[in-house]
Each structure stands twice: as structure tokens, then as C-alpha cells.
Write a structure and sequence with these properties.
The chain is α+β, with helices and mostly antiparallel strands. 17% of the residues lie in helices and 29% in strands.
Length: 98
């Protein structure tokens, strides 16, 4: 079991190891999208790069970055991830909408 702490929302979610970060955020009523992306996102298929989150703590407890993430986030800090491409394997703290 893993604990996801959503820093901006002051919420926590307990999830199974290997859970998708985007899915668990949405299941716990955490809004990860900005503005128009709420309507135009790709629904978690890893095509739009609108679900960017900042990992505050526990980066080592996440799945490795995918090739798509490396491409889309190349000019972003190393602790930014796409929630739809990220699997949680341990405790992590996340800031939404960085």
C-alpha cells in the first residue's frame, strides 16, 4: 500500500502499489487540469501532456519516466511528471497544477 499526499488540496489517498496517479487523483476529487485542459485532455492516454504534476517527495517511489514524458517535459524540472504516465509504488507527495 502507498500513500499519496496532495499538498495543495491537503488531502491524502491510500492506494495499492502500481496505481496510476491520474486515476487516483480523479477518484479522490483532485482536479489536476488547468483551464481548457479540463475539457480537452486526452483522458489519460498520454497524448496531450496536460496532467503535469510536481513531485515534492517520493520521486524514487514512482515508475521511470516514459519516452513521451521525457519528450514533453524536457524543459521542465526533473521532478515534474505526467500523472497519466506515472505509477505509484510507495509514499509520494504531489503538487497539482505546477
Amino acid at each position: 500500500m502507498a500513500n499519496i499526499t496532495f499538498v495543495n488540496e491537503s488531502k491524502e489517498a491510500i492506494v495499492m502499489d502500481g496505481s496510476n496517479l491520474r486515476i487516483k487523483a480523479l477518484e479522490n476529487n483532485i482536479d489536476i487540469y488547468k483551464f481548457v485542459a479540463k475539457l480537452t485532455n486526452c483522458n489519460g492516454y498520454g497524448q496531450c501532456a496536460t496532467c503535469v504534476v510536481e513531485i515534492v517527495d517520493g520521486l524514487e517511489n514512482l515508475s521511470p519516466k516514459t519516452d513521451f514524458e521525457n519528450k514533453k517535459l524536457k524543459n521542465k524540472p526533473a521532478n515534474y511528471r505526467l500523472a497519466c504516465q506515472t505509477l505509484v509504488n510507495g509514499n509520494v507527495s504531489v503538487k497539482t497544477k505546477p
